[in-house]
Write a structure and sequence with these properties.
Blueprint: H1 2-12, E1 17-18, E2 25-26, H2 32-60, H3 74-86, H4 90-95, H5 102-108, E3 111-115, H6 121-129, E4 134-139, H7 143-154, E5 160-164, E6 178-184, H8 193-203, E7 204-215, H9 228-245, H10 260-270, E8 273-279, E9 286-292
Parallel strand pairs: 3-4, 3-6, 4-5, 6-7
Antiparallel strand pairs: 1-2, 7-9, 8-9
Helix pairs in contact: 2-3, 2-9, 8-10
The structure holds S-adenosylmethionine.
S-adenosylmethionine binds next to helix 3.
Length: 293
């Protein structure tokens, strides 16, 4: 009965096709990817539901009210699933082709950091593939780093370490330490994003590259009326990103919809020159800003 009803849902939603007798269902090849999106999106919607009451209280507070991801650690499982299911090829499709010479440098051996790495999905893959390079992953939340370390241990990786750290105040010892720094979907979530960008600049070697992969919506609200992707991002931002960042009176609370123009302005203010911008193959709102020190 459940299968019948689920197939009916997918058929009336035109995700799958159905014959005239309503007994034979078929998944067209060009729709197969939709299932990945549906499985991940349904878990995000579940997060909206479980956070609803807490977020409602935050909205009603006179002072900023927020809710860190670590207050509801299952968020990290959903974020991981996005990288494992939808973004499984991100290194080869969105990261390496966008940064000139990065592949060669990783093969020769460079120092890499990913800030806000959560469960370390990207970093562990990189560490396993580029054995001559060394990788540091950090996140302000300690819970996802447990998973990141476990995965690294299972894979026997000797060239990756994970530490709890705040990207807005990175240790002085990391000054000019890294050749390449990566953040994905982190900067718009921060309490003090400009400080974080300044810190990233400080930690790169002269000439080093910062890959900021982030939501880069163009056109703001008026340019995106009735755009389903924009609706998705505004919702995610209300339930996850604004609560994550809006935890101090002086929080920037940019949210996922901060927009590509502001992103460009802020990396430039930190001292970077953007040498390339590429849009993700799996999400037209996710942009890889390649920034040079
Ligand atoms: C939207 S998640 C992205 C996680 C991961 N990069 C990915 O691509 O799935 C944002 C991450 O930034 C981390 N974060 C938030 N504020 C931070 C801060 N001040 N310093 C370091 N990490 C922070 C969160 O704990 C979370 O893991």
């Amino acid at each position: 009965m459940y299968v019948r009803e689920i197939l009916g849902t997918l058929a009336v939603g035109e995700v799958i096709s159905v014959d005239d007798s309503a007994t034979q269902f078929h998944v067209p090849d060009d729709r197969k990817g939709t299932f990945d999106m549906i499985s991940v999106s349904s878990r995000i919607l579940q997060q909206f539901g479980s956070r609803y009451d807490s977020i409602k209280e935050c909205v009603q507070l006179k002072n900023p009210g927020g809710m860190a991801y670590s207050q509801c650690p299952r968020v990290f499982d959903v974020l991981k699933e996005i990288l494992v299911v939808v973004k499984k090829d991100i290194i080869d499709t969105d990261i390496l082709p966008s940064v000139p010479l990065l592949l060669t440098q990783l093969e020769s051996g460079i120092n890499v950091a990913e800030f806000g790495c959560a469960t370390g999905v990207i970093l562990n893959k990189l560490a396993s593939r580029f054995k001559k390079s060394t990788f540091l992953g950090s996140d302000v939340a300690s819970e996802p780093l447990v998973q990141a370390r476990e995965e690294a241990n299972i894979k026997g990786l000797q060239n990756v370490t994970y530490d709890t750290d705040n990207i807005e105040t990175i240790s002085e010892s990391f000054k000019e330490r890294f050749d390449w720094i990566l953040t994905r979907e982190v900067i718009h979530d921060l309490t003090h994003p400009q400080e974080a960008l300044n810190e990233i600049y400080r930690c790169l070697k002269p000439g080093g590259i910062y890959s900021m992969i982030d939501v880069g919506i163009e056109g703001g609200i008026t340019g995106n009326i009735a755009n389903p992707s924009a609706m998705f991002y505004y919702s995610v931002s209300s339930f996850l990103c604004i609560p994550e960042s809006y935890r101090k009176p002086d929080s920037a609370a940019l949210g996922a919809t901060w927009g590509a123009p502001l992103a460009r302005e802020m990396v430039a203010k930190a001292g970077f020159t953007i040498i390339n911008e590429s849009v993700s193959g799996t999400d037209s709102f996710e942009v890889h800003f390649v920034c040079k020190k």
